[in-house]
């Protein structure tokens, strides 16, 4: 990604054609470019105005709403412009040609607007990652998690912890450096460890809550397993509302793992259809069985399916996994006496699917809890928090050692926190993170 002072431009709206296309510019020549295309008549800052967009030959290209956002009060911290043109490819390309003709103006790279906002201190790394997640959000809970991260409250929490660690270090070093001065109380360092111990508890609780964000961000994984022909593929099709899996009366039709994404109560749920579990000598089917067991082992919830009139399959591989018995083909046979103990469904009629949805939602809420407030959202955050927790633990456990060593543990802990927000040497991460963005953001 370029680090030049070029002015950049890109469409920030959806793909063309569209009713309206939003063109964004950022950089030192953004206002100049707008002036050239509107005959120099710029609207007041942050006020929309209808203007005629013209080319170098003074020919009309389009009527557009234009806005200017002078630095530093803009998304990127630079002079910014938005031009809302009609969303045809011809109009957009004509405006692009005019911009390309101006020196030091070029098309933006993916994520370059957000990168400039980060470089100019408008956002920290946590907020940038939250914005990337917000742009990709497909469910209500994903939106909530991303908005929480972009709000800055999580950054404030981590910065607050880092400040507490720095204050503890300052008190320790005051005793080390000025222990002979009358205005420095004796054993000041002893007074900081209660705060460090309290901080350790807060970090530990915060990390334990992180598993809920994984479910929200990456989805709750549900595996359909069972013997051949118990209705796994039919149930997958019924849950998705379309024919995704091939359904036949031939045992072993499903050989590979199929999946579909569902939105259940605002959560992303990925349901996996797997090969029927049975002993076989068929090489391809054997691989399908292996993949089915592997998928079950990685799932958040396993649904063990059996026919309405058959006993549930006994599988040693499921003994350590969270699973629920599901009776299928409820429309074909008289329910057994123990029907109340299990969920029964019919993929043919849809009977029982609402109950299954509620069961999955209930299992998600057990794992996630009632609130997503201030939880680490990515594996990178959790890794750095684990480092911080370990350093704080080392500082607490090293009682009796030189105070300088204990102070160094606290410095390392604060450094790990700083790497989450981008306050400390994260240059190697930036290219990866901003590559997640689309052009124009």
From TrEMBL:
Chain residues that bind (6S)-5-formyl-5,6,7,8-tetrahydrofolate? 24, 82, 122, 441
Q: Name one GO molecular function term.
A: GTPase activity
Cofactor(s), names only, from the UniProt record: K(+)
Q: Which cellular components does GO assign to this protein?
A: cytoplasm
What's the Enzyme Commission number for this chain?
A: 3.6.-.-
Which parts of the sequence bind Mg(2+)? 233, 254
Q: Name all TrmE-type G domain ranges.
A: 219-365
User: What keywords are assigned to this protein?
Assistant: Cytoplasm, GTP-binding, Hydrolase, Magnesium, Metal-binding, Nucleotide-binding, Potassium, tRNA processing
Quaternary data: Homodimer. Heterotetramer of two MnmE and two MnmG subunits.
Family per UniProt? Belongs to the TRAFAC class TrmE-Era-EngA-EngB-Septin-like GTPase superfamily. TrmE GTPase family.
Please describe what this protein does: Exhibits a very high intrinsic GTPase hydrolysis rate. Involved in the addition of a carboxymethylaminomethyl (cmnm) group at the wobble position (U34) of certain tRNAs, forming tRNA-cmnm(5)s(2)U34.
Task: Please report the name of this protein according to its UniProt entry.
Answer: tRNA modification GTPase MnmE
Q: Which organism is it from?
A: Agrobacterium bohemicum
The gene that this protein is the product of is mnmE
